[in-house]
Specification:
The chain is built from five helices and seven strands, in the order ββαββαβαβαβα. It is globular, with a radius of gyration of 16 Å. By secondary structure, it is α/β, with parallel strands linked by helices.
Length: 211
């Protein structure tokens, strides 16, 4: 994908604020501090389109970015940050759920994991009610996305922080933990080395063309 333009559109806290342009959208989800902002910046060849931070939980709104005047990237708040205020965490779930479950422009979700760690479990108290989006937990998020039958691309970031000989093993552990079949393969990604960038764009383009 040749990037000719990538611009920030707006930050939103609810459906009433979402863009009305009816453009295809690709959403990015993942735990706080998983490297979501760096991944998006890498894809669009911009250093600071999405503000990065070493502080987990910094993104507390839904941010929209217009790419090539043709489609939008949507950066959703990271989940699972234990130190976020309770009232903030209570807002995240409904805000993200409202977008993911109702947004007709949404074409796929890029689910970002940290290659160095196994997927987190999430809140066991919500186990019997998968209809509502969890505010923490990779496994809960995966189950929720499957429940709503949303197309998902899995990317394991920070691959440069793992020995080359360990990457395949870590990917297999993540897939086993999430109970993913081969057709839902997780692939390694590194914003630093650009590993996985072309693969991710190929998957995104395929979904954009199919709509």
């Amino acid at each position: 994908m040749k990037i000719t333009s990538a611009v920030f559109i707006k930050s939103c806290t609810g459906e009433k604020d979402f863009p009305k342009e009816n453009m295809p959208e690709i959403a990015f989800v993942g735990r706080s501090n998983v490297g979501k902002s760096s991944l998006i910046n890498c894809l669009v060849l911009r250093k600071n389109l999405v503000k990065t931070s070493s502080t987990p939980g910094k993104t507390q709104v839904i941010n929209f970015f217009k790419i090539n005047n043709a489609f939008n990237f949507v950066d959703l708040p990271g989940y699972g940050y234990a130190k976020a205020p309770r009232e903030t965490k209570e807002k995240w779930g409904p805000m993200i759920e409202g977008y993911l479950s109702n947004r007709k422009e949404l074409k796929c979700v890029v689910f970002i994991l940290d290659i160095r760690h196994l997927p987190t479990e999430g809140d066991k108290r919500m186990k019997d009610d998968i209809r509502h989006l969890p505010t923490e937990g990779d496994k809960r998020m995966k189950e929720w996305l499957e429940y709503y039958k949303l197309p998902v691309i899995y990317a394991a970031t920070k691959a440069d922080k793992v020995k080359q000989s360990e990457i395949k093993k870590q990917i297999e552990k993540i897939m086993e933990s999430l109970e993913l079949e081969r057709e839902s393969a997780v692939f390694p990604f590194s914003a630093k080395t650009k590993t996985g960038k072309d693969i991710l764009w190929k998957k995104i383009n395929g979904l954009l063309r199919s709509t």
